[in-house]
Design a protein that fits this description.
The chain is of the alpha+beta class and 215 residues long. The protein has one domain: 3-Layer(aba) Sandwich (Aminopeptidase). The chain is built from 5 helices and 9 strands; from the N terminus they run ββααββαβαβαβββ. It has a 9-stranded mixed sheet, sandwiched between helices. It is globular. 33% of the residues are buried. The model has no long low-confidence stretch (mean pLDDT 90). Pfam families: Acetyltransf_3 (PF13302).
Length: 215
């Protein structure tokens, strides 16, 4: 699509492909959401979308992507990739930025279908968008965060070199719960072998990164 080059943007790793979803991809991603993304009784998200009924989770997943596409601007964007492993959509990885042309800071968020967890996919898909951020967009900082009891997310951050960046309290289902903030600088990033970015150049102005990333 000539007027929306993001549909050509992909990041590939030795195992995974991250791409802006087609409508068929969104349908499959919605199926993953309906199947479940965490165990009952545990809530890893600030907004508890995953507690909805399966059909509502599926519709909400599609609507959320449509909303992010419609609201995209260089000043505030959220790039939502589907994560594909072996030809199957297994989850979603987000890379977002606000006033990126000035801050050169990105944030990440993700979820993975429950039956695909525990295979190292979460680490590899986060590393993929960090490769895009640092090596493609010229980011200087990447941030993440997770509830203190979300040990899997925290382990991924630690494995990729993030450092603790303080705590914050959030309302989770009516209770104040501590969130750990984490931060990774460009100096602390080393690109893994076999990671590649495809179709980025025409997208750079949409990210507010039209200038030379090294500048």
């Amino acid at each position: 699509m000539r007027n929306w080059p993001l549909f050509q943007l992909r990041v590939t790793t030795p195992r995974l492909e991250l791409r802006i979803p087609s409508l068929d991809d969104l349908d499959e991603l919605a199926d993953r959401a309906a199947e479940g993304v965490h165990e009952p009784g545990f809530m890893p998200f600030t907004f508890p979308w995953s507690d909805a009924a399966p059909a509502e989770r599926a519709r909400g997943t599609v609507q959320f992507h449509f909303g992010q596409w419609a609201g995209w601007s260089p000043e505030k964007w959220s790039c939502l990739f589907v994560v594909v492993d072996g030809g199957q959509v297994v989850g979603m990885q987000e890379l977002s930025g606000t006033d990126y042309a000035v801050t050169r800071e990105v944030a990440t968020g993700s979820w993975l279908g429950r039956r695909f967890q525990g295979r190292g996919i979460g680490t590899e898909m986060r590393a993929a968008v960090l490769h895009l951020a640092f090596d493609g967009l010229g980011a200087s900082q990447a941030t993440s965060g997770a509830f203190a009891d979300n040990h899997a997310s925290y382990a991924v951050s630690r494995k990729l070199g993030y450092r603790d960046d303080g705590i914050q309290l959030h309302n989770r289902l009516g209770k104040a719960v501590e969130t750990r903030r984490l931060r990774l600088s460009r100096d602390g990033w080393s690109t893994p072998a076999g990671f590649e970015i495809h179709g980025l150049e025409p997208c750079l102005p949409l990210f507010g990164a039209g200038e030379d990333p090294a500048g």
